Amino acid sequence: MSEVRGRHRISKTFRFDAAHLLTGLEPGHQCARMHGHSYEVTFVLTAEELDGPGFVTDFGELTPVKAYIDAELDHRVLNEVLPLVPTSENLAEHLAGWFVEHVEPGIHGVLAAVRVSETPTSMAEFEVIR
Question: Within a domain: residue 62?
Answer without folding.
Answer: yes
